[in-house]
């Protein structure tokens, strides 16, 4: 009488026939012909060869190898944000393995890399302005008088000499009434650059000095 092994190795699959690992099938105790109780989602086949970056999938006759990028860090070409890869397969054309350097870059298919945006300098300046915070009325006006010799009245006169219409009304009210100054304020920034003729470096140097008043 032939003697059968109590267990045999079998390949365990997931719902999509991807190889999960090896397990065993038990000999059927009610049969005496070498019949084994193959667990659900298991097949009696040779264990697939392990290939880095791939996962084995059973076709019904043999193993095929599918790219597997699960667990890798990839980035959206549109936003630069990390994208989770949940399924095996080739990487979508919308992602890249190269991280975006910063918000001032965008993906270029032509260069196949991240390139600086055309308006990067403007965006950097706007970000610098918006993160500069605010200064109290006393800090701003005192620093302008110390640096430029212009008090509140002189600032209003400079605005009246160079501006008109709604722009003049807005900046005059800002100078006379506001309790805090912000470089993110478009009218104030335009007044500093177009009327007082301060360049970017001068403005931020003046701003930093005013913080310590």
Summarize this, please?
The chain is 32% helix and 24% strand.
Verbal overview:
The protein is 32% helix and 24% strand. The radius of gyration is 35 Å and the shape is rod-shaped. The strands form five sheets. A four-stranded antiparallel beta sheet has the order 3-2-1-4, with no helix packed on it. The protein has a three-stranded antiparallel beta sheet with strand order 8-7-9, with no helix packed on it. It has six helices and 13 strands. The protein has helices at residues 120-130, 137-148, 152-162, 165-177, 186-195, 200-211, and strands at residues 7-13, 19-27, 36-37, 42-43, 54-58, 63-67, 74-76, 82-83, 95-96, 105-108, 113-116, 134-136, 180-182.
Which terms summarize this structure?
alpha+beta, 32% helix, 6 helices, three-stranded antiparallel sheet, four-stranded antiparallel sheet, 213 residues, 13 strands
DSSP, total strands:
13
Regarding quaternary structure, how should these chains be classified? single chain
Strand content: 15-25%
Q: Which consecutive residue ranges, at least 5 long each, have pLDDT under 50?
A: none
Give Rg in angstroms. Answer: 35 Å
Helicity range: 25-40%
Secondary structure: elements and pairs:
Blueprint: E1 7-13, E2 19-27, E3 36-37, E4 42-43, E5 54-58, E6 63-67, E7 74-76, E8 82-83, E9 95-96, E10 105-108, E11 113-116, H1 120-130, E12 134-136, H2 137-148, H3 152-162, H4 165-177, E13 180-182, H5 186-195, H6 200-211
Antiparallel strand pairs: 1-2, 1-4, 2-3, 5-6, 7-8, 7-9, 10-11, 12-13
């Amino acid at each position: 009488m032939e003697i059968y092994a109590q267990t045999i190795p079998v390949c365990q699959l997931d719902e999509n026939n991807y190889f999960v690992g090896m397990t065993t099938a038990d000999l059927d105790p009610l049969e005496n012909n070498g019949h084994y109780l193959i667990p659900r989602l298991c097949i009696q086949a040779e264990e697939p060869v392990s290939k880095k970056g791939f996962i084995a999938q059973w076709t019904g006759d043999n193993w095929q190898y599918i790219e597997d990028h699960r667990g890798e860090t990839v980035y959206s070409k549109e936003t630069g944000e990390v994208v989770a890869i949940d399924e095996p397969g080739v990487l979508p054309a919308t992602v890249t393995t190269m991280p975006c350097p910063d918000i001032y870059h965008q993906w270029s298919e032509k260069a196949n890399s991240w390139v600086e945006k055309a308006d990067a300098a403007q965006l950097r300046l706007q970000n610098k302005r918006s993160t500069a915070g605010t200064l109290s009325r006393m800090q701003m006006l005192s620093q302008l008088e110390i640096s430029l010799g212009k008090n509140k009245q002189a600032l209003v006169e400079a605005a009246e000499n160079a501006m008109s219409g709604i722009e003049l009304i807005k900046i005059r009210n800002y100078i006379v009434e506001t309790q805090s100054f912000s470089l993110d304020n478009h009218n104030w920034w335009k007044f500093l650059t177009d009327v007082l003729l301060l360049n970017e470096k001068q403005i931020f140097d003046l701003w930093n000095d005013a913080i310590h008043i």
